[in-house]
Design goal:
alpha/beta, 7-stranded mixed sheet, 7 strands, 33% helix
Length: 204
């Protein structure tokens, strides 16, 4: 049996890399995210919305809109994969930093603490939508302000949830990881395979 082929409703090169690791063929299905145009996804938690609910809602929304785009463009039908990753500390959701100062703020709060990384994978296929959530715990060592400033100056944190990349330079700050490394990167491979199997597309 050949590996499944999907549409990836994401522009993340990390998710593309992880799909290749599983041998899953994919075509990127870009959603509208450009400033100045009507966006397909407006990210931001609703009042008192729990982090688990938020990450699943956004992933499901991405998959559903991706499915609509597939139909509108007359593309061959394939499962559509949507995913969302959030960093959570003391119940607060850390999205992508607005700017360098916001990245410094986030990393300062994460320094010396353990936080959670939640990633939801949603698959839309015909009338079915399934979702799987990965939860991991990440512990930062104490990080000095000078280290944070140097890291932010590289530009790496500016498009990352929580202002850091586990596979990037900040890896030297992570004293402990419990859970899914690929989930922290942005696409948990176990949960991705489980979701595909649930809609009839086993990876192996």
């Amino acid at each position: 049996m050949s590996a499944p082929a999907v549409y990836l409703a994401s522009k993340s090169p990390r998710r593309e890399e992880l799909l290749r690791q599983l041998g899953i063929e994919f075509v990127s299905l870009r959603l509208r995210e450009t400033t100045g145009r009507e966006r397909d996804i407006v990210e931001g938690a609703r009042d008192a919305e729990p982090a688990l609910h938020y990450v699943e809602r956004i992933a499901r929304t991405k998959a559903a809109i991706g499915w609509q785009r597939m139909l509108q463009r007359g593309l061959p039908p394939r499962p559509v994969l949507g995913a969302d990753t959030e960093v959570v500390l003391d119940g607060a959701i850390f999205g992508k930093p607005r700017d360098a100062a916001d990245a410094v703020r986030m990393l300062t709060l994460l320094s010396g603490r353990t936080h959670n990384v939640l990633t939801c994978v949603a698959m839309c296929w015909e009338q079915e939508m399934v979702a799987e959530i990965s939860t991991s715990a990440v512990t930062f060592r104490e990080v000095g302000r000078d280290e944070i400033d140097r890291y932010v100056a590289t530009g790496e944190p500016l498009d990352k949830a929580g202002a850091y990349a586990v596979q990037g330079r900040a890896a030297s700050w992570l004293s402990r990881i419990e859970g899914s490394y690929s989930g922290i990167m942005g696409l948990p491979l176990f949960e991705t395979a489980q979701a595909l199997a649930r809609i009839g597309f086993p990876v192996l």
